[in-house]
Amino acid sequence: xxxxxxxxxxxxxxxxxxxxxxxxxxxxxxxxxxxxxxxxxxxxxxxxxxxxxxxxxxxxxxxxxxxxxxxxxxxxxxxxxxxxxxxxxxxxxxxxxxxxxxxxxxxxxxxxxxxxxxxxxxxxxxxxxxxxxxxxxxxxxxxxxxxxxxxxxxxxxxxxxxxxxxxxxxxxxxxxxxxxxxxxxxxxxxxxxxxxxxxxxxxxxxxxxxxxxxxxxxxxxxxxxxxxxxxxxxxxxxxxxxxxxxxxxxxxxxxxxxxxxxxxxxx
Amino acid sequence: xxxxxxxxxxxxxxxxxxxxxxxxxxxxxxxxxxxxxxxxxxxxxxxxxxxxxxxxxxxxxxxxxxxxxxxxxxxxxxxxxxxxxxxxxxxxxxxxxxxxxxxxxxxxxxxxxxxxxxxxxxxxxxxxxxxxxxxxxxxxxxxxxxxxxxxxxxxxxxxxxxxxxxxxxxxxxxxxxxxxxxxxxxxxxxxxxxxxxxxxxxxxxxxxxxxxxxxxxxxxxxxxxxxxxxxxxxxxxxxxxxxxxxxxxxxxxxxxxxxxxxxxxxxxxxxxxxxxxxxxxxxxxxxxxx
Lengths: 267, 290
Description:
The complex is a heterodimer of chains A (267) and B (290). By secondary structure, chain A is α/β, with parallel strands linked by helices.
Protein backbone atom coordinates (compact mmCIF):
# COMPACT_ATOMS: atom_id res chain seq x y z
CA UNK A 1 0.00 0.00 0.00
CA UNK A 2 1.24 3.44 -0.72
CA UNK A 3 -0.30 6.81 -0.10
CA UNK A 4 0.61 9.82 -2.21
CA UNK A 5 1.84 12.64 0.00
CA UNK A 6 0.34 16.09 -0.24
CA UNK A 7 2.89 17.97 1.85
CA UNK A 8 6.52 17.64 0.77
CA UNK A 9 9.46 19.81 -0.15
CA UNK A 10 10.98 20.28 -3.57
CA UNK A 11 14.11 18.57 -2.24
CA UNK A 12 12.04 15.51 -1.33
CA UNK A 13 10.39 15.51 -4.74
CA UNK A 14 13.85 15.63 -6.33
CA UNK A 15 15.10 12.76 -4.13
CA UNK A 16 12.20 10.58 -5.24
CA UNK A 17 12.61 11.57 -8.90
CA UNK A 18 16.35 10.94 -8.71
CA UNK A 19 15.82 7.55 -7.05
CA UNK A 20 13.94 6.49 -10.19
CA UNK A 21 17.22 6.77 -12.10
CA UNK A 22 18.45 3.68 -10.21
CA UNK A 23 15.27 1.61 -10.47
CA UNK A 24 16.33 -0.74 -13.25
CA UNK A 25 20.07 -0.82 -12.55
CA UNK A 26 20.22 -4.24 -10.97
CA UNK A 27 23.38 -5.07 -9.02
CA UNK A 28 25.66 -2.05 -9.50
CA UNK A 29 27.43 0.35 -7.19
CA UNK A 30 25.19 3.40 -6.77
CA UNK A 31 27.28 6.45 -5.97
CA UNK A 32 25.36 9.59 -5.11
CA UNK A 33 27.68 12.52 -4.48
CA UNK A 34 25.96 15.20 -2.44
CA UNK A 35 22.96 15.02 -0.12
CA UNK A 36 20.15 14.64 -2.65
CA UNK A 37 21.90 12.12 -4.95
CA UNK A 38 23.02 10.06 -1.93
CA UNK A 39 19.50 10.05 -0.45
CA UNK A 40 18.12 9.14 -3.88
CA UNK A 41 20.42 6.14 -4.23
CA UNK A 42 19.71 5.13 -0.63
CA UNK A 43 15.95 5.37 -1.16
CA UNK A 44 16.21 3.24 -4.30
CA UNK A 45 18.23 0.61 -2.41
CA UNK A 46 15.79 0.62 0.52
CA UNK A 47 12.75 0.20 -1.73
CA UNK A 48 12.51 -0.87 -5.36
CA UNK A 49 16.10 -1.92 -6.07
CA UNK A 50 17.52 -3.81 -3.08
CA UNK A 51 20.24 -5.27 -5.35
CA UNK A 52 22.05 -1.92 -5.47
CA UNK A 53 25.42 -1.69 -3.76
CA UNK A 54 26.54 1.32 -1.76
CA UNK A 55 29.58 2.48 0.20
CA UNK A 56 29.93 4.42 3.43
CA UNK A 57 31.55 7.20 1.33
CA UNK A 58 34.83 6.25 2.92
CA UNK A 59 36.07 2.68 2.56
CA UNK A 60 33.46 0.00 3.19
CA UNK A 61 30.62 -1.45 1.14
CA UNK A 62 27.36 -1.51 3.09
CA UNK A 63 24.46 -3.94 2.90
CA UNK A 64 22.26 -1.15 4.26
CA UNK A 65 22.73 2.59 3.55
CA UNK A 66 24.04 4.79 6.36
CA UNK A 67 21.93 7.70 7.58
CA UNK A 68 23.53 11.06 6.77
CA UNK A 69 25.42 13.13 9.31
CA UNK A 70 26.38 12.44 12.88
CA UNK A 71 25.12 9.09 14.10
CA UNK A 72 24.56 7.82 17.65
CA UNK A 73 27.66 6.57 19.46
CA UNK A 74 26.34 3.00 19.46
CA UNK A 75 25.53 3.04 15.73
CA UNK A 76 27.05 0.13 13.84
CA UNK A 77 27.12 0.38 10.09
CA UNK A 78 26.27 -2.71 8.03
CA UNK A 79 29.70 -3.42 6.52
CA UNK A 80 29.68 -5.91 3.69
CA UNK A 81 33.20 -5.65 2.30
CA UNK A 82 36.22 -3.39 2.23
CA UNK A 83 35.96 -0.91 -0.64
CA UNK A 84 38.91 1.46 -0.55
CA UNK A 85 39.71 3.82 -3.39
CA UNK A 86 41.86 1.39 -5.35
CA UNK A 87 38.96 -1.06 -5.41
CA UNK A 88 36.57 1.71 -6.44
CA UNK A 89 38.66 2.14 -9.59
CA UNK A 90 38.43 -1.59 -10.28
CA UNK A 91 34.67 -1.24 -10.00
CA UNK A 92 34.55 1.88 -12.22
CA UNK A 93 36.54 0.21 -14.96
CA UNK A 94 34.31 -2.89 -14.79
CA UNK A 95 31.31 -0.69 -15.62
CA UNK A 96 29.18 -1.98 -12.73
CA UNK A 97 28.43 1.48 -11.36
CA UNK A 98 25.94 4.30 -11.73
CA UNK A 99 27.09 7.66 -10.39
CA UNK A 100 24.96 10.74 -9.82
CA UNK A 101 26.91 13.95 -9.54
CA UNK A 102 26.53 17.71 -9.79
CA UNK A 103 28.85 19.27 -12.37
CA UNK A 104 29.24 23.04 -12.77
CA UNK A 105 28.47 23.04 -16.51
CA UNK A 106 26.42 20.65 -18.67
CA UNK A 107 26.49 21.48 -22.38
CA UNK A 108 24.09 20.42 -25.13
CA UNK A 109 26.12 17.26 -25.74
CA UNK A 110 25.85 16.18 -22.10
CA UNK A 111 29.52 16.93 -21.64
CA UNK A 112 30.28 18.32 -18.19
CA UNK A 113 32.84 20.56 -16.53
CA UNK A 114 34.21 20.27 -13.00
CA UNK A 115 37.56 21.88 -13.61
CA UNK A 116 37.86 25.50 -14.67
CA UNK A 117 35.87 28.46 -15.99
CA UNK A 118 36.91 31.28 -18.29
CA UNK A 119 40.31 32.72 -19.08
CA UNK A 120 42.79 30.38 -20.73
CA UNK A 121 43.72 26.84 -19.82
CA UNK A 122 47.10 28.03 -18.56
CA UNK A 123 45.42 30.75 -16.51
CA UNK A 124 41.72 30.07 -15.91
CA UNK A 125 39.56 32.80 -14.43
CA UNK A 126 38.00 30.43 -11.90
CA UNK A 127 39.77 27.20 -10.95
CA UNK A 128 37.53 24.56 -9.45
CA UNK A 129 38.28 20.94 -8.55
CA UNK A 130 39.93 19.46 -11.61
CA UNK A 131 38.72 16.67 -13.86
CA UNK A 132 38.40 14.34 -10.80
CA UNK A 133 37.08 10.92 -11.85
CA UNK A 134 34.71 12.30 -14.50
CA UNK A 135 36.68 11.15 -17.56
CA UNK A 136 36.68 7.56 -16.30
CA UNK A 137 33.15 7.59 -14.95
CA UNK A 138 31.74 8.94 -18.20
CA UNK A 139 33.29 6.37 -20.50
CA UNK A 140 33.08 3.34 -18.19
CA UNK A 141 29.62 3.38 -16.65
CA UNK A 142 26.20 5.04 -16.35
CA UNK A 143 25.95 8.58 -15.03
CA UNK A 144 23.14 10.89 -13.96
CA UNK A 145 23.28 14.50 -12.89
CA UNK A 146 21.56 16.54 -10.21
CA UNK A 147 21.30 20.31 -10.55
CA UNK A 148 19.80 22.20 -7.59
CA UNK A 149 19.57 25.52 -9.49
CA UNK A 150 18.53 25.06 -13.11
CA UNK A 151 19.91 28.05 -15.08
CA UNK A 152 21.74 29.01 -18.26
CA UNK A 153 25.13 29.17 -16.50
CA UNK A 154 24.97 25.43 -15.88
CA UNK A 155 23.00 24.45 -19.01
CA UNK A 156 25.20 26.81 -20.96
CA UNK A 157 25.66 28.02 -24.50
CA UNK A 158 28.46 26.45 -26.54
CA UNK A 159 30.79 23.73 -25.32
CA UNK A 160 32.01 23.33 -21.74
CA UNK A 161 35.06 25.47 -20.89
CA UNK A 162 36.80 22.23 -19.93
CA UNK A 163 35.27 18.90 -20.95
CA UNK A 164 35.69 16.66 -17.90
CA UNK A 165 33.34 13.94 -19.11
CA UNK A 166 32.60 12.54 -22.53
CA UNK A 167 29.11 13.11 -23.84
CA UNK A 168 27.24 12.85 -27.14
CA UNK A 169 29.47 15.19 -29.15
CA UNK A 170 29.94 13.71 -32.67
CA UNK A 171 33.22 15.64 -33.01
CA UNK A 172 34.72 13.78 -30.05
CA UNK A 173 33.72 10.19 -30.71
CA UNK A 174 36.81 8.03 -30.18
CA UNK A 175 37.81 5.89 -33.13
CA UNK A 176 36.17 2.48 -32.96
CA UNK A 177 33.48 3.67 -30.59
CA UNK A 178 29.97 5.09 -31.04
CA UNK A 179 27.95 7.82 -29.40
CA UNK A 180 25.63 5.14 -28.08
CA UNK A 181 28.48 3.79 -25.96
CA UNK A 182 28.05 6.82 -23.71
CA UNK A 183 25.41 6.18 -21.06
CA UNK A 184 23.95 9.36 -19.59
CA UNK A 185 20.72 8.49 -17.79
CA UNK A 186 18.74 11.18 -16.01
CA UNK A 187 19.19 14.86 -15.32
CA UNK A 188 17.19 15.92 -12.28
CA UNK A 189 16.90 19.64 -11.53
CA UNK A 190 14.84 21.88 -9.29
CA UNK A 191 12.52 22.40 -12.27
CA UNK A 192 12.21 19.09 -14.07
CA UNK A 193 13.56 15.69 -15.07
CA UNK A 194 15.34 15.32 -18.41
CA UNK A 195 17.45 12.83 -20.32
CA UNK A 196 19.47 12.87 -23.54
CA UNK A 197 16.94 10.74 -25.40
CA UNK A 198 15.89 13.31 -28.02
CA UNK A 199 16.82 12.98 -31.72
CA UNK A 200 20.63 12.78 -32.05
CA UNK A 201 20.90 12.57 -28.25
CA UNK A 202 19.49 16.04 -27.67
CA UNK A 203 18.34 16.83 -24.17
CA UNK A 204 14.68 15.94 -23.70
CA UNK A 205 12.09 16.82 -21.11
CA UNK A 206 10.69 13.81 -19.23
CA UNK A 207 8.58 15.47 -16.55
CA UNK A 208 7.90 18.89 -15.04
CA UNK A 209 7.80 19.45 -11.29
CA UNK A 210 4.40 20.71 -10.06
CA UNK A 211 3.70 24.25 -11.29
CA UNK A 212 6.73 24.47 -13.61
CA UNK A 213 6.11 25.29 -17.28
CA UNK A 214 7.90 24.16 -20.42
CA UNK A 215 8.76 27.79 -21.10
CA UNK A 216 10.45 28.13 -17.71
CA UNK A 217 12.65 25.10 -18.44
CA UNK A 218 13.55 26.37 -21.90
CA UNK A 219 14.28 29.89 -20.65
CA UNK A 220 16.72 28.47 -18.15
CA UNK A 221 18.44 26.18 -20.65
CA UNK A 222 20.73 27.83 -23.21
CA UNK A 223 20.09 25.15 -25.83
CA UNK A 224 16.92 23.60 -27.22
CA UNK A 225 15.09 21.13 -25.00
CA UNK A 226 13.13 18.51 -26.91
CA UNK A 227 9.56 18.57 -25.61
CA UNK A 228 7.39 15.51 -26.23
CA UNK A 229 3.72 15.99 -27.13
CA UNK A 230 2.69 15.21 -23.61
CA UNK A 231 4.86 15.92 -20.58
CA UNK A 232 3.71 14.45 -17.27
CA UNK A 233 4.11 16.04 -13.86
CA UNK A 234 6.92 14.55 -11.79
CA UNK A 235 5.21 12.03 -9.46
CA UNK A 236 4.80 13.15 -5.87
CA UNK A 237 6.54 11.18 -3.13
CA UNK A 238 4.51 8.68 -1.20
CA UNK A 239 4.06 8.96 2.55
CA UNK A 240 6.14 5.80 2.90
CA UNK A 241 8.98 7.27 0.82
CA UNK A 242 8.98 10.44 2.91
CA UNK A 243 9.29 8.37 6.07
CA UNK A 244 12.26 6.47 4.66
CA UNK A 245 13.90 9.72 3.55
CA UNK A 246 13.37 11.23 7.01
CA UNK A 247 14.99 8.20 8.63
CA UNK A 248 17.96 8.37 6.23
CA UNK A 249 18.40 12.10 6.85
CA UNK A 250 17.65 12.64 10.55
CA UNK A 251 19.42 16.04 10.64
CA UNK A 252 17.38 17.29 7.67
CA UNK A 253 20.40 18.13 5.55
CA UNK A 254 18.07 17.93 2.54
CA UNK A 255 16.48 21.23 3.63
CA UNK A 256 19.71 23.07 2.80
CA UNK A 257 20.15 21.74 -0.73
CA UNK A 258 17.80 23.89 -2.81
CA UNK A 259 17.66 27.67 -2.30
CA UNK A 260 15.01 28.62 0.28
CA UNK A 261 13.89 24.97 0.62
CA UNK A 262 10.63 25.55 -1.30
CA UNK A 263 7.60 23.26 -1.09
CA UNK A 264 7.21 20.60 -3.76
CA UNK A 265 3.94 22.09 -4.92
CA UNK A 266 4.42 25.76 -5.70
CA UNK A 267 2.30 28.14 -3.64
CA UNK B 1 69.21 -1.92 7.58
CA UNK B 2 68.30 1.00 9.83
CA UNK B 3 66.34 3.50 7.71
CA UNK B 4 65.59 6.01 10.45
CA UNK B 5 66.34 9.64 9.55
CA UNK B 6 65.42 13.06 10.84
CA UNK B 7 62.83 14.95 8.82
CA UNK B 8 65.48 17.45 7.80
CA UNK B 9 67.95 14.79 6.60
CA UNK B 10 65.22 12.88 4.77
CA UNK B 11 63.92 15.94 2.94
CA UNK B 12 67.51 17.00 2.14
CA UNK B 13 67.51 14.07 -0.29
CA UNK B 14 65.06 15.96 -2.49
CA UNK B 15 66.89 17.97 -5.16
CA UNK B 16 65.79 20.86 -7.33
CA UNK B 17 63.72 19.72 -10.29
CA UNK B 18 62.82 16.30 -8.90
CA UNK B 19 59.43 14.63 -9.33
CA UNK B 20 57.81 14.10 -5.93
CA UNK B 21 54.77 11.90 -5.31
CA UNK B 22 52.68 12.61 -2.22
CA UNK B 23 50.44 9.94 -0.69
CA UNK B 24 47.07 10.37 1.02
CA UNK B 25 43.89 11.81 -0.47
CA UNK B 26 42.62 15.41 -0.17
CA UNK B 27 42.54 16.14 3.58
CA UNK B 28 43.29 12.52 4.54
CA UNK B 29 46.60 11.08 5.83
CA UNK B 30 48.92 13.49 4.08
CA UNK B 31 52.63 13.56 5.04
CA UNK B 32 52.20 17.19 6.08
CA UNK B 33 55.20 17.35 8.42
CA UNK B 34 57.45 16.29 5.53
CA UNK B 35 55.75 18.88 3.32
CA UNK B 36 56.44 21.50 5.98
CA UNK B 37 60.07 20.43 6.00
CA UNK B 38 60.17 21.13 2.26
CA UNK B 39 58.72 24.59 2.98
CA UNK B 40 61.64 25.18 5.40
CA UNK B 41 64.18 24.07 2.78
CA UNK B 42 65.61 25.77 -0.31
CA UNK B 43 64.51 23.05 -2.75
CA UNK B 44 62.57 24.31 -5.77
CA UNK B 45 61.21 23.56 -9.24
CA UNK B 46 59.50 20.37 -8.13
CA UNK B 47 57.08 18.34 -10.21
CA UNK B 48 54.42 17.19 -7.74
CA UNK B 49 52.12 14.19 -8.27
CA UNK B 50 49.26 14.06 -5.77
CA UNK B 51 45.61 13.36 -5.01
CA UNK B 52 45.89 16.88 -3.73
CA UNK B 53 44.89 18.73 -0.61
CA UNK B 54 46.73 21.33 1.46
CA UNK B 55 50.01 19.57 0.58
CA UNK B 56 49.65 20.88 -2.96
CA UNK B 57 48.27 24.25 -1.87
CA UNK B 58 51.16 24.93 0.50
CA UNK B 59 53.84 23.84 -1.96
CA UNK B 60 52.28 26.00 -4.70
CA UNK B 61 51.95 29.00 -2.40
CA UNK B 62 55.56 28.67 -1.29
CA UNK B 63 56.74 28.67 -4.91
CA UNK B 64 58.12 25.12 -4.76
CA UNK B 65 56.08 23.76 -7.66
CA UNK B 66 57.11 23.99 -11.29
CA UNK B 67 54.59 21.46 -12.52
CA UNK B 68 51.62 19.74 -10.92
CA UNK B 69 50.24 16.36 -11.98
CA UNK B 70 46.71 16.19 -10.57
CA UNK B 71 43.12 15.01 -10.95
CA UNK B 72 41.81 17.26 -8.19
CA UNK B 73 42.99 19.46 -5.36
CA UNK B 74 40.38 19.75 -2.62
CA UNK B 75 39.91 19.77 1.15
CA UNK B 76 36.62 17.84 0.66
CA UNK B 77 34.48 19.68 3.23
CA UNK B 78 35.99 22.87 1.81
CA UNK B 79 35.76 21.88 -1.87
CA UNK B 80 38.07 24.52 -3.33
CA UNK B 81 41.72 24.63 -2.18
CA UNK B 82 42.64 28.33 -1.81
CA UNK B 83 46.32 28.31 -2.75
CA UNK B 84 46.00 25.80 -5.58
CA UNK B 85 43.34 28.10 -7.05
CA UNK B 86 45.60 31.11 -6.72
CA UNK B 87 48.45 29.27 -8.42
CA UNK B 88 46.22 28.21 -11.30
CA UNK B 89 44.42 31.55 -11.64
CA UNK B 90 47.72 33.43 -11.76
CA UNK B 91 49.15 31.00 -14.31
CA UNK B 92 52.04 30.25 -11.95
CA UNK B 93 52.35 26.51 -12.56
CA UNK B 94 52.48 24.05 -15.42
CA UNK B 95 49.90 21.30 -15.10
CA UNK B 96 49.19 17.79 -16.25
CA UNK B 97 45.50 17.43 -15.41
CA UNK B 98 44.33 13.82 -15.61
CA UNK B 99 41.59 11.54 -14.32
CA UNK B 100 41.98 10.03 -10.83
CA UNK B 101 42.20 6.54 -12.26
CA UNK B 102 44.70 7.59 -14.94
CA UNK B 103 46.99 8.70 -12.12
CA UNK B 104 46.72 5.25 -10.56
CA UNK B 105 47.54 3.63 -13.91
CA UNK B 106 50.52 5.94 -14.35
CA UNK B 107 51.85 5.00 -10.92
CA UNK B 108 51.31 1.30 -11.65
CA UNK B 109 53.14 1.60 -14.96
CA UNK B 110 56.08 3.22 -13.16
CA UNK B 111 55.99 0.55 -10.44
CA UNK B 112 55.89 -2.28 -12.99
CA UNK B 113 58.55 -0.82 -15.26
CA UNK B 114 56.30 -0.59 -18.31
CA UNK B 115 56.15 2.60 -20.40
CA UNK B 116 52.37 2.89 -20.36
CA UNK B 117 49.12 1.12 -19.56
CA UNK B 118 46.28 1.18 -22.10
CA UNK B 119 42.93 2.51 -20.98
CA UNK B 120 39.77 4.04 -22.41
CA UNK B 121 39.77 6.62 -19.62
CA UNK B 122 40.29 10.14 -20.92
CA UNK B 123 38.92 9.54 -24.41
CA UNK B 124 36.66 12.32 -25.66
CA UNK B 125 37.68 14.73 -22.88
CA UNK B 126 39.95 17.75 -22.49
CA UNK B 127 42.31 15.65 -20.41
CA UNK B 128 43.71 14.62 -23.80
CA UNK B 129 43.27 18.03 -25.48
CA UNK B 130 45.52 19.70 -22.91
CA UNK B 131 48.04 16.86 -22.59
CA UNK B 132 49.41 16.34 -26.11
CA UNK B 133 52.17 14.21 -24.59
CA UNK B 134 49.61 11.54 -23.69
CA UNK B 135 49.43 9.46 -26.84
CA UNK B 136 46.64 7.43 -28.37
CA UNK B 137 47.55 4.01 -29.69
CA UNK B 138 46.09 1.26 -31.82
CA UNK B 139 45.38 -2.08 -30.24
CA UNK B 140 46.81 -5.27 -31.74
CA UNK B 141 43.57 -7.01 -30.69
CA UNK B 142 40.74 -4.68 -31.77
CA UNK B 143 40.00 -1.69 -34.00
CA UNK B 144 39.58 0.86 -31.25
CA UNK B 145 41.95 3.61 -30.19
CA UNK B 146 43.23 3.56 -26.61
CA UNK B 147 44.89 6.05 -24.30
CA UNK B 148 48.49 5.02 -23.55
CA UNK B 149 48.71 6.35 -19.99
CA UNK B 150 52.44 6.99 -19.50
CA UNK B 151 54.35 5.81 -16.45
CA UNK B 152 54.52 8.49 -13.74
CA UNK B 153 58.06 7.83 -12.59
CA UNK B 154 58.78 9.43 -9.24
CA UNK B 155 62.17 10.39 -7.85
CA UNK B 156 60.76 10.57 -4.34
CA UNK B 157 57.50 9.68 -2.63
CA UNK B 158 56.37 11.12 0.69
CA UNK B 159 53.89 9.04 2.69
CA UNK B 160 52.52 9.19 6.24
CA UNK B 161 51.59 5.98 8.07
CA UNK B 162 50.37 5.07 11.52
CA UNK B 163 53.35 2.95 12.54
CA UNK B 164 56.62 1.75 11.12
CA UNK B 165 59.67 -0.14 12.32
CA UNK B 166 63.27 0.91 11.78
CA UNK B 167 63.51 -1.15 8.58
CA UNK B 168 60.50 0.47 6.95
CA UNK B 169 57.73 -2.03 7.56
CA UNK B 170 54.73 0.32 7.54
CA UNK B 171 51.28 -0.13 9.06
CA UNK B 172 48.28 1.81 7.84
CA UNK B 173 45.61 1.05 10.41
CA UNK B 174 43.02 3.43 9.03
CA UNK B 175 40.14 2.35 6.84
CA UNK B 176 41.93 3.01 3.53
CA UNK B 177 45.54 3.01 2.41
CA UNK B 178 44.39 5.05 -0.65
CA UNK B 179 46.93 4.64 -3.46
CA UNK B 180 49.93 4.88 -1.14
CA UNK B 181 51.24 1.44 -2.07
CA UNK B 182 51.56 2.61 -5.67
CA UNK B 183 53.28 5.85 -4.65
CA UNK B 184 55.76 3.74 -2.67
CA UNK B 185 56.37 1.37 -5.60
CA UNK B 186 56.55 4.08 -8.28
CA UNK B 187 59.38 5.99 -6.55
CA UNK B 188 63.12 5.45 -6.49
CA UNK B 189 63.17 6.80 -2.95
CA UNK B 190 60.20 6.54 -0.58
CA UNK B 191 60.31 8.63 2.58
CA UNK B 192 57.76 7.55 5.17
CA UNK B 193 56.80 9.52 8.25
CA UNK B 194 55.07 7.57 11.01
CA UNK B 195 53.01 8.56 14.01
CA UNK B 196 54.77 5.90 16.06
CA UNK B 197 57.99 3.97 15.66
CA UNK B 198 57.43 0.38 16.78
CA UNK B 199 59.49 -2.73 17.41
CA UNK B 200 59.48 -5.24 14.56
CA UNK B 201 57.63 -7.73 16.80
CA UNK B 202 54.60 -5.43 16.54
CA UNK B 203 53.89 -6.98 13.14
CA UNK B 204 53.90 -10.60 14.36
CA UNK B 205 50.13 -10.35 14.84
CA UNK B 206 48.69 -11.40 11.44
CA UNK B 207 45.94 -8.80 11.70
CA UNK B 208 48.62 -6.11 11.86
CA UNK B 209 50.73 -7.72 9.13
CA UNK B 210 47.67 -7.46 6.87
CA UNK B 211 47.76 -3.70 7.40
CA UNK B 212 51.15 -3.55 5.66
CA UNK B 213 50.59 -2.70 1.98
CA UNK B 214 54.09 -2.75 0.56
CA UNK B 215 57.16 -4.71 1.52
CA UNK B 216 59.99 -2.89 3.28
CA UNK B 217 62.23 -2.84 0.20
CA UNK B 218 59.87 -0.14 -1.13
CA UNK B 219 60.58 2.06 1.89
CA UNK B 220 63.83 4.06 1.81
CA UNK B 221 63.62 6.23 4.92
CA UNK B 222 61.58 6.27 8.13
CA UNK B 223 60.96 9.47 10.07
CA UNK B 224 59.13 9.32 13.39
CA UNK B 225 56.79 12.33 13.59
CA UNK B 226 53.86 11.88 16.00
CA UNK B 227 50.94 13.94 14.69
CA UNK B 228 52.82 14.33 11.41
CA UNK B 229 49.69 14.24 9.24
CA UNK B 230 48.18 17.35 10.88
CA UNK B 231 46.07 19.19 9.76
CA UNK B 232 45.03 16.19 7.61
CA UNK B 233 43.62 13.10 9.31
CA UNK B 234 45.36 9.92 10.35
CA UNK B 235 42.37 7.75 11.13
CA UNK B 236 41.99 6.04 13.62
CA UNK B 237 44.56 8.11 15.56
CA UNK B 238 43.04 11.54 14.83
CA UNK B 239 40.66 13.28 12.46
CA UNK B 240 41.40 16.29 10.28
CA UNK B 241 41.53 19.70 11.94
CA UNK B 242 38.42 21.49 10.70
CA UNK B 243 39.21 24.73 12.51
CA UNK B 244 42.77 24.78 11.20
CA UNK B 245 41.66 24.13 7.62
CA UNK B 246 39.13 26.97 7.95
CA UNK B 247 41.88 29.30 9.19
CA UNK B 248 44.14 28.12 6.37
CA UNK B 249 41.42 28.75 3.80
CA UNK B 250 40.60 32.16 5.32
CA UNK B 251 44.29 33.10 5.04
CA UNK B 252 43.92 32.70 1.29
CA UNK B 253 41.57 35.69 1.36
CA UNK B 254 43.21 37.72 4.10
CA UNK B 255 46.78 37.62 5.36
CA UNK B 256 48.05 35.38 2.59
CA UNK B 257 50.49 32.52 2.81
CA UNK B 258 53.09 34.73 4.51
CA UNK B 259 50.72 35.37 7.39
CA UNK B 260 49.81 31.71 7.65
CA UNK B 261 53.42 30.50 7.62
CA UNK B 262 54.50 33.23 10.03
CA UNK B 263 51.85 32.14 12.49
CA UNK B 264 52.23 28.37 12.21
CA UNK B 265 55.22 26.94 10.35
CA UNK B 266 57.98 27.43 12.92
CA UNK B 267 61.62 26.42 12.64
CA UNK B 268 60.83 22.73 13.14
CA UNK B 269 57.92 20.38 13.77
CA UNK B 270 58.05 20.85 17.54
CA UNK B 271 57.50 24.56 17.09
CA UNK B 272 54.73 23.94 14.54
CA UNK B 273 52.94 21.67 16.99
CA UNK B 274 53.22 24.25 19.76
CA UNK B 275 51.71 26.80 17.35
CA UNK B 276 48.70 24.59 16.62
CA UNK B 277 47.98 23.63 20.22
CA UNK B 278 50.25 20.65 20.83
CA UNK B 279 50.29 16.93 20.10
CA UNK B 280 47.62 16.17 22.69
CA UNK B 281 45.23 18.51 20.88
CA UNK B 282 46.07 16.87 17.53
CA UNK B 283 45.48 13.40 18.92
CA UNK B 284 42.14 14.57 20.34
CA UNK B 285 40.75 15.67 16.96
CA UNK B 286 37.50 13.81 16.31
CA UNK B 287 37.29 11.39 13.39
CA UNK B 288 35.10 12.62 10.52
CA UNK B 289 31.64 11.21 9.77
CA UNK B 290 30.88 10.68 6.10
